[in-house]
Amino acid sequence: MSSIDEVISSLSANSNAVTDLQGQIHGTTAMAEEMLKQLQEIGLQGKAAALGAVKDQLAACDAFAAALQNKLSEAMTSAAAATGQ
């Protein structure tokens, strides 16, 4: 049977993984923005529009990751409260 401390430790590891994921999403977004700018500069509007959609989808992914991070934080707070019972 797991202890509450093990649950908290696992939640912390999950939170760290989400933080890493957010960094990767931000890096990919920066790459997409740079490529989008280059495509617009050379007049490839169709490809630029498609990459604009990718950028929007990455923004949604970032928002989901932020919401997940908040829920993990709430879970850690709840688990910590359980140690005091």
UniProtKB/TrEMBL annotation:
Protein name: Uncharacterized protein
